[in-house]
Amino acid sequence: MALKNILGWQIRRIRIQKGLTVHQLSSALPPSSPLTSEEIAGIELGTRKVFDHEIMGFSQVLKVSVENLYAT
After folding, report:
1. What's the CA gap between 56 and 42, in Å, rounded?
2. Could you say which of 31, 37, 69, 70 has the lowest number of CB atoms within 10 Å?
3. Are 71 and 39 spatial neighbours (Cβ–Cβ below 8 Å)?
4. What 8-state DSSP symbol labels residue 22?
């Protein structure tokens, strides 16, 4: 059974909208939520779970509220 999340496509959409590559996003994440480019790609594809502290890191780097990451 494949893992699923509802944040992946939203993170990808916002990342692209802001002109960031997966590598740039990975490099910009705070030390409290380090992720590799491969892990971010897994999140965006819905094959990797996202943990609470990682959501906060994405919110900070992408400069959006956590609520916006859950918007559909």
Report:
1. 17
2. 31
3. no
4. H
Tell which residue, 27, 25, 36, has the closest CA to residue 59.
25
Q: What is the CA radius of gyration of the chain?
A: 11
By the 8 A CB rule, do 11 and 69 touch? yes
Please write the tens of the pLDDT for every residue from 26-69.
999 999 889 999 999 999 999 999 999 999 999 999 999 999 99
Work out the number of other CB atoms within 10 angstroms of the CB of residue 71: 11
What lies within 8 Å, CB to CB, of 69 at 6+ separation is 7, 10, 11, 14, 55, 58, 59, 62
Residue 58's Cβ-count burial label (10 Å; 0-12, 13-18, 19+) is buried
